[in-house]
Input
Amino acid sequence: MSKFSQYNIRIPLSDKSDILYNALSDRFIAIKHDLELQDVSDLPKTVAILLQENGMLTADDSDERSEAIDRWKQEASSSSALTIIINPTLRCNFNCWYCYENHTNAPIMSHDILEKVKKLIASSISGTDMLNISFFGGEPLLEFVRIVAPLITYSEEVAGKSNKQIRFSFTTNGFLLTKEMISFLSAHNCRGMQITLDGGRNSHNKTRISKTKDSFETITTNIKRLLDHKISVTLRINVTPENISDCSDILTWIQNLSDEQKHYLSVNVQQVWQTAKTSNISIQVDNLLDSICQLGVYAYPAILDNLRRMCYADKANTLLVNSNGDIFKCTAIDFKTEDRISNISSSTIAEDLSDHFKRLTEKRFANKSCIGCRIFPLCLGGCHRSVVDHTDNDYCIYNEDQTKINDIIMTIIKDRVRRDMVQTKR
Output
């Protein structure tokens, strides 16, 4: 016998058809608007088979919530890859108005902390197959010569001796990149960079102010050089109600890229969080995403799917070393010492991280508000920061708002359509 999945979400499209999406299988189908989904025994055989194939009908004795939790735990606790995020400094060459970090008198990583990071890498690599080193900040390229390059060289040596795979990535504003840096990174298995633009040239240059150069021109030129070296770039476009209409320069720039360059580029469009609560620009964002995909480059918004696109900070084998040696999990914080999980000088780093992971996992799945939620496999109580920030065990980050839930599902479906469109163009 079968039953309807508890994670089916039905969204009306028109007076003739609806979308049926399943949050556990991550599949969707179109169904007739007047199709009744009340009694499994009343379903036409062809419909029942279709629903079963897409995870929308399950066995009577199935426990879908446990399946979602087990899959999350398996992925989150995997030791196949170790990710170490490093903040060489919290200083920055720009002063973007929306940045949550305090760059004033921010520390830079000392030689002592650098050597301890090296020891951490050397002592940790034996327990994993893949080592991911990611540089964050502040602006990590400010300390390229003193911190970044030596760490890359050292990490490669350690990985080589241990016969382990290694790759490097950066979150950077891209302004300080030089031809020499790019050649070095290309030769040392740098696999990806996230670089941000704040709208088109005029809007961007008003946010990322340089007294000596056109920052939009400098950054886009550097991105092209990275693409030419086959270094993948995620171009993040930070949009606001003021700059969303000023992105034609970006579209023109993408249009003028070669097919080979486009192959290494993806675009992530995100509304600046300080404006999201007061201004809804989702239609403009959709239009921008569609325009970019029509140019043959995959573009995507913020997508909620903590089961298949797990937050990096939720993974047990991820840690962040701040410039002062404090250890955290998440980059979207202000790195206050009182909020740290451990410190690079501690002899109990592994234990501290393990205790933190166990405590947050228990809290995440003790949340009673999640028990009957139809998007539980997508949300799972939110990202790492959401679980940390809620002192209560029982909370819903979407306040059980059905409109928001439908928007989440439609965002996923639109993204699937855009991905298919880009693959067809390629």
